[in-house]
């Protein structure tokens, strides 16, 4: 889906830049009150190393939901709606930093400083765990979906039982007006009984990429695919999921996203944890990292997949005759505990989560030649990133990296990351 040109948005872009300049000053002042951890981490030797000849071992088996199943749900629930209809129905607002608690703001990075930040309402997110972020900057190269700027943020409900989660949902955020972001919820589901019903996605969301009309979602048991032209309205407001007396319920959300397919692990392929879109490759590619415990001696593997060039498969991965998506490149790094991955212009940016609940994470920039981590404080600590690390999503049209930590949704220029690292020498 290619949208119309950018020249009609010049006035809107000037307003956005003015807002960012003002917000950056406010957040810089706030960040000076946050003390950095006194600990440092050792740098990974030589950055990322390409695993020559082994990329073919990173395979995913594509499984698409039958068309008859996909058609049966709207036959019962009504005609699907698109992203614009969901945004027009936004019934909640994100708060600007001045209206966020000090505890929430403490989750923001120390170096570099966020230039945009918002907090989610505590009552609206109580019992939910923040996950990955993607934007219309992933969806289309002009940064818009139609005429709108959009952010999608994943959340997972905790059941309180060890090792188990309840349901997952996506916030559809209207980001047209930087000073006033509004949103509403859509529940992630999987069709069952041939499309006569659906169940919640019972796994934590760790990665999101919105590419063309598809939303790719990584969980503990695979990579799910959602079609953003197939959003259904819930008709009953209750805590149940699926078909109920009087209609359809989505655990309190107004909308439902039924999966249209998935990619399951094939062979010894590592489980994708974090994912992001790389628009600096030709063609665009999906990059992934595996989850390796921070205290592990094992290296973390990184790899990338190509997207299909077939217009009928827009947003899906390129597959072979057997329906397998095979990685085009694979790498490894000595950095462990990676919770966010971004690849752009030959560099890899890795978000290493804090090893403690109250600590800070580390942001790395690595290439085949070197590895650097941001520094802060008088002791040049490397633990300068957000408190609870999350995914990284690069909005190429604005030059911003978006992420989420706790109840804070924030962005900062990728150039500020590079500048902070370059200034360290």
The SS-based structural class is mainly beta
Based on CA inertia axes, which overall geometry fits? globular
Helical residue percent band: 10-25%
Mean of pLDDT: 87
| Rg from alpha-carbon coordinates | 21 Å
Note the total helix count. Answer: 7
Compute the separation of the termini in Å: 42 Å
Main beta sheet: 13 strands, mixed
**Total beta strands:** 28
Unreliable sequence segments: 1-22, 28-44
The fraction of residues in strands falls at 35-45%
Oligomer: single chain
Keywords:
disordered N terminus; 13-stranded mixed β-sheet; 37% strand; 28 strands; mainly beta; five-stranded antiparallel β-sheet; 425 residues
Can you give me a brief rundown of this structure?
This protein has helices at residues 10-31, 67-77, 83-88, 102-105, 122-125, 136-139, 414-423, and strands at residues 49-50, 59-64, 92-93, 116-119, 128-135, 150-158, 165-174, 182-192, 197-200, 207-211, 214-219, 222-227, 232-233, 241-244, 247-250, 255-266, 272-278, 285-290, 300-306, 324-326, 329-333, 338-344, 347-352, 362-366, 371-373, 393-395, 400-405, 408-413. It is mainly beta and 425 residues long.
